[in-house]
Specification:
single chain, about 375 residues, alpha+beta, Alpha-Beta Plaits, eight-stranded mixed beta sheet, three-stranded antiparallel beta sheet, 14 helices, 13 strands, globular, binds flavin-adenine dinucleotide
Length: about 375
């Protein structure tokens, strides 16, 4: 298709990769394909009939209706075993269990057999742990939006969880806020490249001479403040290090790996997209329930009437907190982080050089200190 006839989709810099355009195209004429940085972008093919629907439903091209300020809670799951495997206070699992008990289905991000991050649909409690924990890579949605519509059409209740841009993409694809759909956006300060993650995996396999079989990006460890990055290999053996010292953690902390739009993200605000928002509660005073903080406390924002109704039904431990306290400590609620100068050099090298050279040049510990950022809290330590 020539440029003059192609629909005017959002620019590369602002496209979130939500895929609403591709999912909503009546002719299946838009394919989501990786660019040289390893992120998926829409590509319009010759099957396009120029109906303009893709442009019409793009969430970035449309101003959202502002919502009233959310209500903030410190919240946690009382089940310590579940909570220990969750990224924050394990609130997502309670929410998901509630929906499944009610006969509904739950969509969220999981690792597939190749350890790529994809959205899946969970219908029973024994599959739920696949959705547990943060996967520090942009999740691929595939046909998720049409599957959500399929279950809603069947009259089933659906919980969709994901980044705010994914939630917004779903609403724009559906063209409405169906009553049976509950959405939960995660607080997100940017998604790292799936392409880089694929190379990190290959490089671990090369070094260990074994295939990585299971990964935990942000494992909690008793007595440690920061999270651990853990990999189990086929046939035995593992890698277990502070996330802060892993190559992925260093790349994230240096802000080298984020999708371009994340540096201009319109969703890093208190005006939330989902019915509920979940994050790590970092801004609590040190003397506020230190034992619970040690285990992880979620920041839960109630953003809509539907979200408030669900919140009342959940068997949560919770306490109302000032929204200003939560917002002050979490950039995901205030403003996107700027890209570092080395970002373009990193991706230039990524596109042209063997990954072994890229990791040696950009993903090793160095004495350069990066600016304070949310990831410092997740990683637990100052970069050296
Ligand atoms: C890329 C990324 C950036 C983040 N940035 C922030 C931040 O700036 N501030 C903050 O407070 N917290 C951040 N988090 C953490 C996130 O907010 C927590 O995962 C969330 O609070 C849920 O915690 P939980 O204990 O209730 O459930 P958990 O069991 O920890 O998380 C499960 C939930 O996270 C979703 N999820 C996991 N990985 C992804 C992914 N790659 N894409 C979409 N959804 C995913 C699942 O669908 C599920 O809904 C980030 C997480 C990710 C993946």
């Amino acid at each position: 298709m020539t440029e003059s006839t192609a629909p005017q989709l959002v620019t590369h810099l602002r496209c979130t990769g939500c895929g609403a355009c591709a999912a909503g195209c009546p002719k299946g004429a838009i394919h989501m394909l990786p660019d040289r940085e390893g992120f998926l972008y829409p590509t319009v093919t010759d099957a396009c009939i120029r109906c303009g629907h893709c442009v019409h439903i793009c969430p970035v091209l449309k101003q959202r209706e502002p919502r009233p300020e959310p209500t903030a809670f410190a919240a946690w799951n009382d089940d310590d075993a579940v909570r220990s495997r969750s990224g924050a206070g394990g609130v997502f699992m309670l929410l998901a269990e509630f929906i499944l008990d009610d006969g509904g289905v739950v969509f969220g991000a999981a690792l597939d057999e190749q350890l790529q991050v994809r959205h899946i649909c969970v219908k029973s409690k024994n599959e739920l742990p696949r959705l547990q924990g943060a996967k520090l890579v942009q999740s691929q949605l595939g046909d998720t939006y049409s599957r959500v519509r399929h279950y809603l059409d069947q009259g089933r209740r659906v919980l969709f969880s994901g980044t705010p841009c994914q939630v917004d993409g779903l609403y724009r694809y559906l063209g409405e806020h169906p009553e049976k759909l509950l959405t939960c956006d995660i607080l997100c300060s940017g998604v790292p490249s799936p392409g880089v993650w694929e190379h990190v995996l290959h490089s671990m396999a090369y070094i260990k001479r074994k295939k990585p079989q299971a990964v935990q990006f942000c494992a909690k460890c008793k007595g440690e403040k920061g999270r651990r990055f853990r990999v189990r290999f086929e046939g035995g053996g593992s890698y277990d290090a502070p996330l802060a010292k892993s190559e992925l953690g260093l790349g994230i902390k240096r802000r080298l790996l984020l999708r371009p739009c994340c540096h201009h993200c319109p969703y890093m605000t208190l005006d939330r997209v989902g019915d509920l928002s979940l994050g790590d509660y970092w801004g609590l005073p040190k003397d506020y329930r230190p034992e619970e903080q040690q285990k992880g406390i979620s920041l839960l924002l109630v953003n809509s009437v539907k979200g408030a109704h669900m919140f009342d039904l959940l068997p949560l431990k919770k306490e109302k907190r000032p929204l200003s306290e939560a917002a002050a400590a979490n950039p995901a609620l205030s403003a996107p982080v700027q890209p570092p100068e080395e970002r373009s050099a990193f991706f230039e090298a990524f596109a042209q050089q063997p990954f072994q050279q890229v990791r040696t040049r950009f993903l090793q510990p160095s004495p350069i200190r990066s600016k304070p950022h949310w990831w410092h809290k997740l990683l637990g330590k100052k970069e050296r």
